[in-house]
Design brief:
The protein has helices spanning 87-99, 156-162, 167-173, 183-191, 198-210, and strands at residues 3-5, 8-18, 22-30, 36-44, 48-54, 60-67, 72-76, 79-81, 101-113, 119-120, 122-133, 153-155, 175-181. It has five helices and 13 strands. 25% of the residues are buried. Strands 5, 6, 7, 8, 9, 11, 12 and 13 form an eight-stranded mixed sheet that branches. A five-stranded mixed sheet has the order 1-2-3-4-10, with no helix packed on it.
Length: 214
């Protein structure tokens, strides 16, 4: 086996691990300088989607959850794997499952690759607007949320009570709160690293460009 791309030559490859979500391989390579080496690559089995869902005031719908890999809480936009679905269909599913909300308007605003030094992980970013709980415009947000865009934290169980379909999904993901974060506050959270998830930071950048904020 010999396959050359961009100055790198792959001389051998073996899969060392695989599950339904990721595959890990180790390649024998010749580097661009001609030296021999190995290169480990993690391939996501399916692309991922990230949803910047915004209300009429420009506040961003975000979730708070514990991330097992980094052993800490994280404030993020709704996201998940496509699991074989069309990316837009996956984005709609993730928004509903993680927040209980649906959107009437969807726009793909960017594509990116995560950790491209070690991963093959394509990602799609969507802007979602026209938000309602569970797609029912006659259902008001739970009282603890207040007016959309006020930045108040709502317990995930309160959001789920409006659309019981999402309660188990939120529990499985470990989502403990759903929050509308005003745009300026979201930017402050990026600045001070309250938002530290790289994909969320990048997704917000795409949203800022798509909505003319920068």
């Amino acid at each position: 086996m010999s396959d050359a791309h961009g100055g790198w030559t792959t001389t051998g490859s073996r899969e060392v691990y695989s599950n339904p979500w990721i595959a890990v391989r180790e390649d024998a390579v010749l580097r661009p300088d001609g030296g021999e080496g190995i290169y480990g690559v993690v391939t996501m089995q399916h692309p991922s989607v990230f949803v910047v869902a915004m209300d009429d005031d420009g506040a961003v719908l975000m979730v708070s959850l514990y991330r097992y890999a980094t052993r800490g809480m994280s404030l993020e936009v709704p996201a998940g794997g496509c699991d074989g679905d069309d990316p837009l269909d996956a984005a709609r599913r993730e928004l509903l499952e993680e927040t209980g909300f649906v959107a009437s308007e969807w726009h793909e605003i960017g594509r990116m690759n995560a950790l491209n030094g070690v991963c093959d992980a394509p990602e799609f970013v969507y802007l979602a607007t026209g938000l309602t709980i569970g797609g029912r415009a006659d259902v008001e947000p739970p009282g603890s949320v207040g007016a959309l865009g006020d930045g108040t934290v709502a317990d995930a169980a309160d959001i789920a009570s409006a659309t019981v379909d999402v309660e188990a999904e939120q529990a499985a993901e470990g989502i403990d709160a759903v929050r509308f974060v005003p745009w300026d506050e979201a930017m402050s959270f990026v600045r001070d690293s309250t938002i530290s998830d790289g994909e969320t930071v990048a997704a917000l950048m795409y949203a800022a460009l798509a909505t003319g904020r920068i």
